[in-house]
Design goal:
heterodimer, A: mainly alpha, Helix Hairpins, B: mainly alpha, 2 domains, two-stranded antiparallel sheet
């Protein structure tokens, strides 16, 4: 099997994506949900870099990656702030309890 | 300058809606004054625009990509309906000051009314189908919200939901029309569509012609969609006047009149339009004969009079239909607002509990009788001239059976109107509480509308000129009022119609002697009281839609994991489709 940088990178992207989606689907703790979201974001960054390497447009891919990193940080910050508010209001971090907002 | 004038009839009411909403419950009197000012300000702008009428768009904002251009066209048809929406609507707002005094949540009331008026102005001024559709849906939403204004009354809520569901059928038809126009002609522009309609495949043109007939029938409460309008009586009375006279139901007739040149050649279309108009006019008149709720009788009379307008379009009398629309919006607003004054005084809508009110409410009786004259179609009220014109067009260009039916409808109109006037104002008083005449804020709009009912027919000549000049695809000729009046009085159709009306009136006075006939017609009156089965049908549809909505709402679990699963699933599906298309 060819262990070139591209192949390793692609496997890493898919792995991160899989772990992130699995985490989003099964975790009930809001903090874990945010961690899963972060994993998905990292998968996207890595995917951009691998794609840039493959197409030879490293400049473009790096600038996009920086943008995603910045956006990702904001997602983390807002997510954590929401988690704190949910904990204060509902006395729990269980996302199933958020369904109470429905109606 | 003109650019601003054409935007103001939409912008001012909408701006007013935001302002009165922001005031909330703090200053009801200021709120009322502001609502009146913003509505009538829009009306003033629309009237000031009259000298600038034309068929060129005054406002053109490119929206980009598939959305086409947002255009506002000040042609005669649109301008005339804008004036009706803003001025008659404004008078209904004036009337609300007294009628709605002390009610809770007036901010919601006035904001929705102004939003409604502005949306109606946008609907008729829009030069493109997409914006027409958008405004069309906004008016549907506003009518729903206003019919359900008393939202703690289950009857009002279900009436509002029913109106929303039934008019949505029409909305779908209009959307199909917009998409077909864009798909085949690459433009939403209505005039482009009318000019190039004949280049569309015949079957497709037929389909959109009937789709727009369905749209118009749903909006204008024509058979088989008519039952939402009588149910809409749960709304406060000024809202009934607004829906029946100034906005909403006019939109359907407007759509038919506007698109008539595009669809006139479609086989069977004009016959279908005539049939819808005829059935609505006749069935609604019979239902009005047996109804005992004052507002319900007026609602059926609206369906019936709208039937006359639809019929007029069907026989090619676009001008006659629009003239009748003008007359109808003035006299129906008058009738509804006077009914509001009666209901406000008596505290019931049931005519069996009224009677003998003429002595106690002389002003209201005077204006109500003027409105009734117009409804029946007797001179000198405006309804006489426009209805005769409709019937004359029908005799000249339409099938004889339809003309006979409409003539019968005129007789029935006379009969139910005199029954209504007699039950409310004459005979033994069955009212127990002390009754007051119209209050000042009520009499002002009533007086203006009564004056309008007696005089708007004088505008027929200039109105025909306005339409003839600014509608390039309709074959209309400019005449003078004098010429029209002469034509009406010399036409045999007029005297025939007056004879039928006289027979209708005579039937009421001879009702005691005609008891046998009434017994014979008993089964018919039972059918009419049940709305000829349409009520059950429409209720079924309404129930079905609500049931489906309830079932679908279960898919909204509010569970984060489920939502993520759905998003990931949809993403995978899109990717799979992309891969499959590429491969």
């Amino acid at each position: 099997m060819d262990l070139s940088l591209l192949n390793v990178g692609a496997v890493a992207v898919l792995g991160l994506l899989g772990v992130g989606l699995y985490g989003l689907l099964v975790s009930r703790n809001l903090i874990k949900v945010i961690i899963a979201l972060q994993l998905l974001g990292k998968a996207a960054v890595l995917g951009l870099l691998v794609a840039g390497k493959a197409s030879g447009q490293m400049n473009l891919s790096q600038s996009l990656a920086i943008t995603v990193i910045v956006a990702d940080t904001i997602v983390a910050v807002v997510g954590m702030a929401l988690a704190i508010q949910v904990r204060r209001q509902l006395k729990t971090l269980d996302v199933r309890e958020l369904a109470r907002l429905k109606g | 300058m003109e650019t601003w004038l054409i935007i103001l009839p939409i912008l001012l009411p909408w701006l007013g809606a935001v302002v009165v909403w922001a005031l909330q419950e703090r200053a009801p009197r200021l709120q009322h004054a502001l609502a009146v000012a913003f509505a009538l300000g829009g009306g003033a702008a629309a009237i000031a625009l009259l000298p600038h009428a034309g068929d060129e768009a005054l406002v053109r904002v490119p929206l980009g990509t598939v959305f086409g251009d947002f255009t506002l066209v000040p042609d005669g048809l649109g301008l005339f309906l804008t004036i009706i929406a803003t001025v008659v609507g404004g008078l209904a707002v004036v009337f609300s000051g007294e009628y709605m005094r002390g009610e809770a949540q007036l901010a919601r009331y006035y904001a929705l009314v102004l939003f409604f008026i502005g949306a109606m102005a946008g609907l008729v001024l829009s030069g493109g189908f997409l914006m027409l559709f958008l405004f069309w849906e906004i008016t549907a939403f506003c009518s729903y919200a206003l019919i359900s204004f008393y939202n703690d009354d289950p009857k009002a809520v279900s009436a509002g939901v029913k109106a929303l569901i039934m008019t949505q059928f029409g909305g779908v038809g209009l959307m199909v029309l917009a998409l077909v126009a864009y798909g085949y002609l690459g433009s939403y522009d209505i005039n482009t569509f009318i000019a190039q309609a004949h280049t569309l495949p015949a079957g497709l043109l037929g389909a959109v012609a009937f789709a727009s007939l369905a749209a118009a029938a749903a909006k204008s409460a024509q058979v088989p969609f008519q039952t939402w309008l009588p149910d809409a009586m749960e709304a406060p009375t000024p809202i009934s006047a607004l829906i029946h006279a100034a906005t909403m139901v006019n939109a359907g007739v407007y759509l038919l009149a506007r698109l008539y040149p595009a669809f006139a050649e479609v086989p069977g279309w004009t016959a279908a339009v005539v049939t819808v108009g005829l059935l609505s006019a006749l069935l609604a008149a019979i239902m009005a004969l047996v109804a005992t709720d004052l507002k319900r009788v007026l609602a059926y009379s609206t369906v019936s009079q709208l039937g006359y307008m639809v019929y007029a379009v069907g026989v090619g009398g676009v001008f006659a239909s629009q003239l009748h629309l003008l007359s109808h919006s003035v006299f129906k607003a008058l009738l509804f607002l006077s009914a509001g004054a009666i209901i406000h005084a008596v505290g019931t809508r049931d005519m069996r509990q009224m009677g003998g009110l003429g002595r106690k409410m002389p002003i209201v009786r005077a204006v109500f009788v003027i409105g009734a004259l117009a409804l029946v179609g007797l001179p000198p009220a405006n309804g006489f001239f426009s209805k005769e014109l409709v019937l004359e067009e029908g005799l000249a260009h339409g099938p004889a059976w339809a003309y006979a039916g409409m003539l019968l409808g005129a007789g029935l109109t006379a009969l139910y109107t005199i029954r209504m006037v007699a039950m409310v104002f004459h005979g033994e008083s069955r009212v127990t509480k002390h009754v007051h005449d119209a209050l000042p804020l009520m009499s002002a709009p009533l007086g203006l509308l009564a004056l309008g009912t007696l005089t708007t027919w004088l505008l027929a000549g200039p109105f025909s000129g306005l339409l003839a000049r600014t509608l390039p695809f309709h074959t209309l000729e400019e005449t003078t009022t004098w010429h029209l009046v002469e034509e009406i009085f010399t036409a045999p159709a007029t005297w025939l119609a007056l004879l039928v009306i006289a027979v209708g009136l005579a039937l009421w006075f001879l009702r005691a002697r005609l008891d046998g006939l009434r017994q014979a017609l008993q089964p018919l009156s039972g059918l009419a009281a049940n709305s000829f089965g349409f009520e059950a049908l429409n209720r079924q549809i309404s129930h079905g839609v609500r049931g489906a909505a309830g079932a679908l709402s279960r898919t909204q679990t509010g569970q984060l994991n489920w939502n993520v699963a759905a998003i990931v699933g949809a993403l995978a599906l899109v990717l799979a489709i992309l891969v499959w298309r590429a491969g």
